[in-house]
Amino acid sequence: MTNQPEAIKRLSLPELTGRLGMSVRDAERELENAPALPGPLLDATYADTHRFPPPKWALPTFVEAAGGGGMTYTPYRGDREVREAVAHNVSTGLGIPATGASDVILTPGTQGALFTALAAILSPGDLVLLPDPDYLSTERMLRYFGARVKRIPMLWPQDGSRPTLDLQALEEAAAEGPRLMVFSHPNNPTGAIYGPETIAAIAAAAVRHDFTVIADELYCRLVYEGEEFHHLAAVEGMAERTVTLLGPSKTESLSGYRLGVAVAPTALVGDMEDVQSCTALRAPAYAQHLLARWIAEDGDFLRQRLVEYQALRDTTVKKINASSVMRVDAAYGTAYLFPRVLTGAGDQAVALALKEHAGVVVNPGYQFGLAGSGHMRLCFAQDEAVWDAALDRIIDVVGSVDPT
Amino acid sequence: MTNQPEAIKRLSLPELTGRLGMSVRDAERELENAPALPGPLLDATYADTHRFPPPKWALPTFVEAAGGGGMTYTPYRGDREVREAVAHNVSTGLGIPATGASDVILTPGTQGALFTALAAILSPGDLVLLPDPDYLSTERMLRYFGARVKRIPMLWPQDGSRPTLDLQALEEAAAEGPRLMVFSHPNNPTGAIYGPETIAAIAAAAVRHDFTVIADELYCRLVYEGEEFHHLAAVEGMAERTVTLLGPSKTESLSGYRLGVAVAPTALVGDMEDVQSCTALRAPAYAQHLLARWIAEDGDFLRQRLVEYQALRDTTVKKINASSVMRVDAAYGTAYLFPRVLTGAGDQAVALALKEHAGVVVNPGYQFGLAGSGHMRLCFAQDEAVWDAALDRIIDVVGSVDPT
């Protein structure tokens, strides 16, 4: 398009054209428009919310609000009573320090929280640290804002010890004066959960080199086998420099309501609100009321979900690792697995073949960073029988794709 | 805040500090935090959606979608079938040329449509034309994107002829090579509707000087006395350079669902979608289904609403013009009136006094541009008895504020 703004061009990550033969965005569109196996397509890029529906109170709460019991217009940052409830529930229920409504902003999806936080923090040219691999749209957004991105390798030792970051690389990059670090935790796409020493190292680097951290903890309730989860904001001295992103879109299957939450220092919440007054005005007003019940009233729901997801995780890991074409580390959390293809086939070629010949849509690994190449992200939160059959097709088709 | 990005600073319009004694955003916050008359506050910055609720099919349509009948995840630009329905309904029902789903993007509110359109079009330093007065957040957003803003005076002749723009000022500004013109039509805050010759002049300038136009037509169905409405995009040669912003938040009282629509050239829709993949992913998925019935199934609803709003407009105009403290031109469309205070009292002082002593929140005129100074915007879509009493209080309190 004539006069296309540079920011829009950067958003497509054209710098990866050399590797992919096209920009990341064009590769996504190629996959979107590619031929599919006739019949129903299984989209394994997200959960099946029919098999795994939201908590039972969700829709009635919306109906009550939209039927006259709720506000149609709220402050841009969200209804005050809902924000107070969220502050209380995330601090007592999750252990994320929120002192009250003024530390909380409600957003249109957790994506909205990430965007407004980045907009409120970043200036063009700022250096930002980001694990590799990490959430697919973060690097694109960072480039949109004109930031320079430095990837920090994630390490997943094969001796049974916990995943971590390359802490020496982190320290070296931190010494270059970043404005910000962004990381998803649990890690999207791998499901890694970092131990307390990794979280402490991030905190120490942030304090020593005076940068802000966005901890994208969208999946922090989706943690298996009683795994302990360490919130960065709960580390001494970090609440004042951490934005914690949360929301009910994934674990609670409420993505269709477009709700997200950020817990952040009060002044930053004010700037995020100013951005939100431009981007969307507010999180959908009637749906905001659901957030007052979130965490507080879904304990049984969560316990059952974790049992079912963990069973799906276990059967998926077992099946993949029994194959000769892929290997995968069991996710500590999230509803994702990030298997590596052993055959040498390229990840875009594999994704195209899976859509055309297995009837399954996956996220090719390059979307998550260079370290993701040769992998694919699978969301295993699917109907069990459908998923079991799909996994067989996936393994068959992966084996049939020629190495690049 | 340390390191606050320049874009965030610009968003507050600090250049107006000389006139207001503070930035526009700080003035807004002053009003937000100012003392209010005890008892229920009447917020006349928007419509009372309890008195004027949405069409009856709205909530059941949402419930069906959220209860399992709708998609939880859609393409970022919105569900294809809904976009097809919207394209059909806006072209046959409103006369806005949309050739099909590829010209349409669904957004979180019409605000979301404005943001993604600006992001997809503007580069820092671009010149943008904007009527004075016009929608309160447009100039702030333009400054956020680093654009230079040139205001084009709106003219409202007192001889009974139609409101228009200062066409000579438009032509001179157009000759300076703007990238874009943005205008609300019907005009927010005044309710002006431009005649065909004004729309033709805008189109001619855009073609001659090769710029894009965003026509914010959020209120285009809210038009009184059978007034004809001329869509810019329907002018020969303009569909390819016009973004038309629409949505059901106002006339149809669906703001609480966060839905908006843009009709734009296909390539621009693609870039807007890329931006939306960052800002919010998509319009709330279940709510999207409401847009398939919008326009197609609300004819009777709209006719009744227009009768009721027109009656409110007429009584409000009569009462204001019978007072000795304010004068107002009858809006051709929208649910707003933009009276001028005759006493010489400043608009922030008037707004603060109205909140404290009349229990009414209004938008002070400076929010809409320099030409708005000395005015206030009133949304008259209120319960009739409540509004009648509020108007008496407004007139009393305005008369009591000292001139600046």
From TrEMBL, chains A, B:
Its cofactor is pyridoxal 5'-phosphate. The keyword Ligase does not apply. SUPFAM superfamilies: PLP-dependent transferases. Its EC number is 2.6.1.1. InterPro entries: Aminotransferase_I/II_large, AspAT/PAT-like, PyrdxlP-dep_Trfase, PyrdxlP-dep_Trfase_major, PyrdxlP-dep_Trfase_small. GO terms for molecular function: L-aspartate:2-oxoglutarate aminotransferase activity; pyridoxal phosphate binding. GO terms for biological process: amino acid metabolic process. Coiled coil: none annotated. Keywords: Aminotransferase, Pyridoxal phosphate, Transferase. Residues 50-394 form the Aminotransferase class I/classII large domain. Belongs to the class-I pyridoxal-phosphate-dependent aminotransferase family. This is Aspartate aminotransferase.
